[in-house]
Design goal:
The chain is α+β, with helices and mostly antiparallel strands. 23% of the residues lie in helices and 19% in strands. It has a 7-stranded mixed beta sheet with strand order 8-9-10-1-11-21-12, covered by helices on one side.
């Protein structure tokens, strides 16, 4: 997940709780001796903070990160780091009909759920028609199992552009369990039945442990039999565990990687992939309030930001340059319609910021802060307490905004307050992350993050965002929605470029998400005891431990060194 719940661990200013208090099971890292059942436990940090609350509901905002991928699987795995063909998980193959309105999916034969019951195409059909997957909003007409291994998905419009959403992120659920779930929003699902390589072993306040699923289709090939997800509430403890060889896999920001890799156990990789932005609650009609609802204010703040300084000081030079079109460069370069919009400005232009504000009716006060109608231009900016790179970026943005006559007050909040704020829209500015696209095409971001009420990607302030969508800024633009709907219906690349040009014109002007950087994504992993990790030479999957679906795919590739 996104700089979201599983995006990073929470970091506090307090240095390190005792390693012994974390309840590490099995042997310590750096040793091949067995765990309690003779198997080496893989110790993982993937964003969970103590106390752990057992929630394995794949539709819940607070779902534990080991759920999506290790436990529940989609039909196919898409590698977001490269433009490659998807790999079968539950699915075996798929094909479109002539006009793209029908997808016929063959699933692997003889599959079983973790409780031993058969997994058939009927379960897949049930999944796609299940309420939490928004079948009506997704244009699903029907999902029909024509035999035990074939399901036909029929839509009211062509679905070429939504291939990943349909086949790569819809997690398959068992009908015999979920048909009896009356309120999926309140279902903790503490003992999940699923198809993935792992099932829940035990849960405590300090951690939760998954064990190999004996019914998994490739159970005999699993090299890691137990995975313990450890809840950690501060940066120093996580770094101490890595340096001591007691943590095997995590995705987190460490300015000095040598501090944890010099033990000869831990290696690391940096894969900048996901946009870091300022969420702005942008749409007055949907209930947003504050100066950030003005396009001119967002535009002024955009040019007031010195991104090169933020990269250097907050992210120690590890980030990538971001495009206001939200195409990932260089991978998605062909989709950028106007090359002038290829990259956001790297240096601040306070003069331009002033011109934008003055054209919108603002005048600079005696204290250097702009005002209009006697009201100063003041904004509140929050970030999650302990996300040190984001906290530092927020402070720098506040300083840079002040130079342009915009008062930004930066503060930190706990994870739950952050989550509640963006879900309900009760904020002005947030330093947050956008989920990078899982295929070499920005459509996924356009629909999920910029789509409005017409495509069911956002909600009014006070209402939660629809499941599986992420438009926390409450951006609602009919032109963008119409273009998204049109893009869904074409498999013509030239036509799609024209449609994306329309979307890019709107979002580059409106800036509901003010681009900051492509975030550094550091992954630290135990290369001494385990093989099979994604590396620069073989980047077969997005490597951090918090990656939805990809983390489960990686676990299936790991082997214990002899």
């Amino acid at each position: 997940m996104i700089r979201n719940g599983a995006r990073k661990i929470a970091l506090t200013a307090v240095a390190g709780a005792s390693v012994l208090a974390l309840g590490l099971s099995g042997c310590s890292a750096g040793s091949n001796s067995g765990g309690g059942d003779g198997d080496r436990v893989l110790h993982v940090q993937a964003g969970t903070q103590p106390p752990v609350v057992a929630n394995f509901n794949p539709f819940a905002p607070g779902v534990l990160s080991g759920t999506n991928g290790p436990i529940y699987e989609p039909l196919f795995f898409f590698n977001k780091t490269a433009d490659t063909e998807p790999e079968g998980m539950v699915g075996d193959s798929f094909e479109y009909n002539e006009d793209g309105t029908q997808i016929t999916v063959k699933i692997k034969p003889d599959l079983k759920w973790s409780d031993g019951k058969p997994l058939t195409a009927a379960d897949v059909a049930f999944t796609f028609e299940y309420e939490a997957n928004n079948p009506e909003a997704n244009g699903l007409v029907s999902a029909e199992a024509t035999d035990d291994t074939t399901v036909v998905l029929t839509y009211d419009t062509p679905q070429y552009t939504t291939e990943f959403a349909r086949l790569g992120s819809t997690l398959i659920i068992p009908e015999h369990i979920w048909k009896d779930v009356k309120d999926f929003t309140a279902f903790a699902n503490e003992k999940p039945v699923a198809s993935g390589a792992y099932v829940v072993d035990k849960v405590s306040k300090e951690s939760y442990t998954l064990k190999a699923n004996p019914e998994f289709r490739d159970a005999d090939k699993l090299g890691v039999k137990k995975v313990q997800y450890i809840a950690i509430d501060n940066n120093q403890t996580a770094q101490d565990l890595l340096a001591a060889g007691k943590l095997d896999w995590t995705g987190m920001f460490i300015p000095n990687p040598d501090s944890v890799t010099k033990n000869g156990i831990i290696d690391w990789i940096n894969t900048p992939q996901d946009p870091t932005v300022l969420y702005t609650c942008s749409n007055v009609e949907l209930g947003c309030t504050g100066p950030q609802t003005e396009v001119a204010v967002r535009q002024a703040l955009n040019v007031a930001i010195d991104r090169s300084t933020i990269n250097e000081k907050a992210f120690v030079g590890m980030t990538g340059e971001i495009s206001p079109t939200f195409a990932l460069l260089p991978r998605d370069e062909k989709w950028v319609a106007d090359k002038a919009n290829a990259v956001s400005p790297q240096k601040a232009d306070t003069g331009e910021a002033g011109k934008i504000l003055e054209a919108a009716g603002y005048t600079k006060g005696s204290d250097g802060i702009y005002e209009k109608g006697g009201v100063k231009l003041e904004l509140n900016l929050i970030s999650v307490d302990g996300w040190t790179d984001y906290n530092d970026a927020a402070k720098l943005i506040a300083e840079q905004a002040a130079q342009a006559g915009i008062k930004v007050t930066a503060s930190t909040v706990q994870w739950q307050e952050f989550s509640d704020a963006r879900q309900t829209g009760n904020f002005q500015l947030i330093v947050g992350g956008v989920v990078g696209t899982s295929v070499a095409d920005p459509f996924q971001i356009y629909r999920d993050w910029f789509g409005g009420t017409e495509v069911a990607s956002t909600s009014k302030v006070g209402e939660e965002i629809p499941a599986g969508r992420w438009n926390f800024s409450r951006y609602n633009n009919p032109v963008v929605d119409a273009a998204i709907q049109e893009a869904i219906g074409t498999n013509d690349e030239a036509k799609r470029k024209e449609i994306y040009a329309t979307i890019q014109t709107e979002i580059v002007r409106d800036l509901p998400y003010i681009p900051v950087v492509i975030n550094a994504t550091q992954t630290f992993y135990n290369a001494k005891d385990f093989t099979g990790w994604p590396t620069e030479d073989d980047l077969y999957a997005f490597p951090p431990s918090w990656g939805a679906v990809s983390s489960g795919y990686i676990l299936q590739h790991l082997q214990l060194k002899k």
